[in-house]
Amino acid sequence: MKRALITGITGQDGSYLAELLLEKGYAVYGLVRRKSKLDFNNAEHLKGKVTFIFGDMTDSASLLRAMEIAKPDEIYNLAAQSFVTTSWETPLSTADINAIGVTKLLEAVRLVKPDTRVYQASTSEMFGKVQTIPQNEKTPFYPRSPYGVSKLYGHWIIKNYRESYGMFACSGILFNHESERRGEEFVTRKITISVAKIKAGLQDHVELGNLNASRDWGHSADYVRAMWLMLQQDKADDYVVATGKTHTVREFVSLAFLAAGMELEFHGEGVQEYATLKGTDRILVKVNPEFFRPAEVDLLIGDATKAKTILGWEPEITYEELVNRMVKSDIQLLVEGKI
């Protein structure tokens, strides 16, 4: 039986990955941060199936302890301060977790079980101010946030340990991926929750930032399959994981409302732009400049040819199905009083 350790197991990716590994017969261990109020979040349903270990990416001793307990054949490092906006407010802690934390984990692996295969969750935000369209493994990086910069350190330290110590360490440069389990602070989930509340008459409208920002959106359940495939190869390498299609925030919010039976009409431009329910003057979407980033990433679209060719990976859930699932899920959660 293979043994796997997942950091960040309470996030959307961690929970989907744990389910995948359990289906494949793994013994799964999950690193969880100890809080005054313990919250397993998306991993709540995994109790009794996963062995949880308390630890923190900023605490070397806890990472060494986790390695000694789990003795993993594979590690999936999904733990991060992953909210881009917050990274401007807390740049130092973002760096501690996303950058130095990766090095601490690699050192723990090197000291306890150096043959462990390591997956690092890199991000398309490292491309930032994109230098080529679409972006692939050879595209130069130009991060535009403390989050992107911290992730770039993590990405390069993985490559450095791979080349310096011969460790099986690889990074998945994952483009935006969402799901019904996405955190409520992310714009996609903010939109789908707002749509559910507006549909129920509990909210008047939703306020958003840059509607022109374009992202390559896929579903988390598809992307964790790519993570697993990377660690099954004969040779460690880095891969872009993306759908190859891009959509604006404007398109996302339009499709989300449509999934709830409401069609939007957009009016105006820039900060004056807003959207009404089609055929009425009822405003459902407003632009609020407070939600603009200090440095915006305008267009991200990935070229996953390498992952498709070498890993045999293909996304199965379409963009339209992704949005529809998120809206339907939040409508149901609202009915159940969970949001």
What does this structure look like?
The protein is α/β, with parallel strands linked by helices. It is built from 10 helices and 15 strands. It has helices at 12-23, 60-70, 84-89, 91-112, 146-165, 187-199, 220-230, 249-259, 305-311, 319-335; strands at residues 3-7, 27-32, 51-54, 74-77, 117-123, 169-174, 177-178, 206-208, 214-215, 218-219, 239-241, 247-248, 264-267, 274-277, 283-287. Strands 3-2-1-4-5-6-11 form a 7-stranded parallel beta sheet, sandwiched between helices. It has a 4-stranded mixed beta sheet with strand order 8-15-14-13. It has a two-stranded parallel ribbon with strand order 7-10. The chain is globular. Keywords: Lyase, NADP. Catalyzes the conversion of GDP-D-mannose to GDP-4-dehydro-6-deoxy-D-mannose. Its cofactor is NADP(+). It comes from Hallerella porci. This is GDP-mannose 4,6-dehydratase.
Helix content: 25-40%
Uncertain runs: none
The termini sit apart by: 38 Å
Number of helices in the DSSP assignment: 10
Oligomer: single chain
SSE string, helix = H, strand = E? Answer: EHEEHEHHEHEEHEEEHEEHEEEHH
Beta-strand fraction estimate: 15-25%
Please give the largest β-sheet. Answer: 7 strands, parallel
Concise overview:
The protein is α/β, with parallel strands linked by helices and 339 residues long. The chain has ten helices and 15 strands. The protein starts with a strand and ends with a helix.
